[in-house]
Amino acid sequence: MKSYPMQLDSCFGTKVFSKTLKSLSLAVALALLPLAAHADQLADVKKAGELVVGTEMQFAPFDFLEAGKQQGLNAELFAELGKELGVKIKFLDLPWPSVLPGLEAKKFDVVAGPIIVTKARKERYHFVSPIAEATVALIAGAKDDSIKKPEDISGKTVGAGKGSAQLEELKTFAATLPEKVTIREYVDNNQAYADLAAKRIVAVANSLPNISYVAAQKANLYKVVQPPFGKKSYFAYLGRKDADADSLIAALDTAVTKMHDDGRLAALQKKWLGAEMDVPKGDFDPTW
Amino acid sequence: MFDWPLLQQNAPLLLDALWVTLQVSIAALAIGFVIGIVVGSLRLSPVPLLRRLGGAYIFVFRGIPLLVQLLFIYYFLPRIGLPNVSPTMAAIIGLSLAAGAYIAEIMRGGFLAIPGGQLEAAGLLGLSTSQMLLRIRVPQAVRLTLPALVNEMILLIKASSLVSVVGLADLTRTAQNLAASDYMFIQDYLMLAGFYCLINVPLAYCGSLLERRLKEQTA
Q1: What Cα–Cα distance (Å) separates residue A195 from each residue in A192, B183, B192, B198?
Q2: Which CATH superfamily is domain A41-133+233-273 in?
């Protein structure tokens, strides 16, 4: 970081420029300081009458567009959460790499991926109670008879989302196989599915709910390879990890638990994910 | 391979997104053009400090990838106390600043091609610096650099495909969303390409038409 302005400086060799750079780097330094906690996010949300949710509408069956309209588990689940909190829900659609930075820049209150709960992510974000199981499985070409069980990818090329927890799980699994598996990383899962359809890769690793949905939509193109190979993991929504966000997350936790108890969550899982899922109530320790 | 009903269903959605792309691009081109004239003439200013200022502007906004600029404007500026702008505003600001840098260099080329004697004559006739800029230098520079300017406009419209990173549902983002839900990747992206041509082909045509008319005028 430090050497960068100096390089520019010697390039330009002007005082004006180095001053601009100094004030710029000062601004950078200031911005990196954590902002002082000052408010109660739940009160802010209630006052605005609106909970703003950042998401990506390319994550079926959780969030996707059909004829330009939002569909999926997130829309219906958040509608219920909104009722519990007494606020309206507003969704913002962003490409996934922009979603978490947007949360940190306070462009929205919470993120609806949902996202797999991992230890590393728990360090940085405040997760709401999980809403679905996220264990990783493979999706392969519908007519590809060479892939019948997860181990059949040995010696072949498969894909997964870059930076995803599913990718890590795939790498761990691939290391146990006799022949080397070539893993391609994709910015978003839909590119991976497109490559699978184009036969550039033989399978894509993703969470079971996601690939089950894709395979059901395009049965002529894709099939799910049973059983899932990953460790048990869970999907959850998340918010900022600072003192003023605590009140909001606590309220959402209460609402999710209530939906657990009265069966609304199970009904939504059944509708969108094909089956009821056994997910932990409240906080838990992720396996990785 | 092609699915007509789906195409008919998706076309109006892309048409809506075309407006978003057009609005952002036109606003950015207009603002970028003003920035371009100012920065381009700063680069030729007799005052060394102003020349350097123009140079620094171009260095920054041409040097940093547009994608990074957009992310910076949208996510980072609010953290240092600057206003938390809307996605549309962030997109217009980012595109204008970048377009300004490129147009400045094009305009500089145009300004340099104007014979110095004209400016001396204008000075003797008592025209102020701003009058000279707006009445003598800019009209001629635009005429001289028209092909490069039209080129830049087309490039900017295509570069606007990056604005989805700040949450704006432009043409590219809408097509990606559609492809993500209907899995008709080839069809949706071919339509996307077609929609960009819908803007760029008439634009290029108008450019060459204007070029011909200006040529006739000068002849």
Answers
A1: 5, 11, 19, 28
A2: Periplasmic binding protein-like II (3.40.190.10)
